[in-house]
Amino acid sequence: MNDxxxxxPREPRGVLGTLDELLRQPRAGFARAxxxxxxxxxxxxxxxxxxxxxxxxxxxxxxxxxxxxxxLAAVKAPLIVAGSALLCVPSLYVFGLLAGAPLTRARFAVTxxxxxxxxxxxxxxxxxxxWLFSVSTQSLAFVVxxxxxxxxxxxIFGTRFLRAAMPEVPTGALMLWIALFCLVSFQVTTFMRxxxxxxxxxxxxxxxxxxxxxxxxxxxx
Amino acid sequence: xxxxxxxxxxxxxxxxxxxxxxxxxxxxLAELTLLMAVSAAGYGLVLGMWHGTRLAxxxxxxxxxxxVLTSTFxxxxxxxxxxxxxxxxxxxxVAVLTFLALAAAAVALLSLAPIAWFFTVCAPAPSTATRxxxxxxxxxxxxxxxxxxxxxxxxxxxxxxxxxxxxSTLRRVYLVWVLGYAVVGGEVAWALxxxxxxxxxxxxVVFLRQDALQGNVYEFIGRDIVPYFWSRRRQ
Lengths: 221, 235
Description:
Chain A is an all-alpha fold. Chain A is built from 10 helices and no strands. In chain A, helix 4 (40-62) runs parallel beside helix 6, helix 5 runs antiparallel to helix 9 and helix 6 runs antiparallel to helix 8 (140-165). Chain B is 74% helix and 0% strand. Chain B contains 9 helices and no strands. In chain B, helix 4 packs antiparallel against helix 8. At the A-B interface, helix 5 and helix 9 of A face helix 5, helix 6 and helix 7 of B.
């Protein structure tokens, strides 16, 4: 009885239940995918929870500027993560398969959703810290470094999740993909700028093309 | 082609068993070549798009050409090296294994195309003021091509381990083959330049530069790159 529970745990109910399972039993989703159980509902709930967590995190980051920026950052943060994930999906799938991971559509959906969900959960856990520092400083450079540090912490947990999800892929290759995902997320953030700070009456989306390193340089000036 | 893509990604063991059997391999070679060419053309479109549609179209032809020419130039040597190092593969098997590695590399490269596309779309337009962007894009494409090349050779190594020979023998053959691809591939890509395009008005967008076959990449490294770094070190 216990074995069967370990192999294919019962599907949790609701968005919070799904996020709770992702946190406590991150492998449960794979077990269900391996057992051939449907994963679509789980994936959709996990995506909804993930977007919610990211939206909260974005709102927290908007407290640095306050006002409308709280709402704008709450919309932009989930878009940044969703955009980065979409751009990086094909490479994770193809490199995973070429490395020998037996990725079915269900297992890959669970892997990707779980990875982004794990990042979201860690970021949600860091939300009070982020809020505290965001409202207590006026230095944009400090907040940029803070978000980079929090992003790094979330990435460490996300990497652990991916390693457990795709043990067939060499760790070095996974680390390279994670580095690529980070770079893409930086560029998507630059594309969605301004996020932390907006001049009064400035556009919601800045015009002009900018490389993320130049964007950081501007922000840290 | 989609069937071959499915076999390469999902049923790699079955594909390798087929390649290493005594069955005819003409159809497999044709399908792998098509998959490689289409995948490389897809990435080629993104590779050249920073300089506009003309270079994108040129690269969609030139990148598959680099892979096909590299395979063509190296296949005879690869077969002879395998025989000399006591790995008795048929010529057709060596050809198919070569194209298998390059097809895997091309498919991996295509999977990175959305990322390369996004960075290119976000890059400021080419001009003499955007040398850093040019260098960053160049570095990105070179890293992607190098990483995918390594991924392709990993597929090759996986195939070779099924040949039932001593690992040391297989490693020698593998290294000789990979060295052959790298040396020849570097020169073929050099001759078919430009791919990313230059920010200097001295080098307009062309399919092939007039000096394509005047000198080679290794002469260029020895004559220009090494003395440049040497002189900087002495300063």
